[in-house]
Amino acid sequence: MTLAERLARAWQAGRGGDASLLTGDDRELDARAPADLTPAAVLIAVTDRDRPGVLLTQRTETLRHHAGQIAFPGGRLDPGEDAVAAALREAEEEIALPRAAVAVIGPVAAYRTITGYAVTPVLAAVPADLPLVPSEAEVASVFEVPLDHLLDPANQLAASAQWRGQTRHYYEIHWQDRRIWGATAAMIVNLSRQLAW
Hints:
The protein has 197 residues and is an alpha+beta fold. The chain is 22% helix and 36% strand. The chain contains 4 helices and 11 strands; from the N terminus they run αββββαββββαβββα.
């Protein structure tokens, strides 16, 4: 069975459960109309190896928003695009991931960010060890974290911080010297609750 087939089967099996999903960075976002949020998409690219991994990027320190943070490749939808097309385009632009190499499983539950985006993660399988090249303007580095490490609830740590005068609650996941947190970690938590891996 291919990795794409295994992921598709795990996705179908996990979606049938009664998972409690994280909908956004802040409960107030649930009351906002979808039209008030900018549609965006990210690619959750799982590498085909004995111990599958997930491709993540570290943003450059020069970006105006989310500088230095860890994220999935992705961004806002262009006019006429759906989430899958946007995720594939952004991954190609940011890390030179060829669209033809991606086996799309499908969209995962959308997540609303405090910065005004409705982000749809797109789950996919990709070959291992592709020659990925970070876009110098946006991506400082591309790295891989084992899928089983990300999906393990023991590694998904609840945390909180003050932001704009309010206590904000979020998740963070540590891998080696990296800290994955905020919306990226929340989307991983949601995936872990829907993927029977």
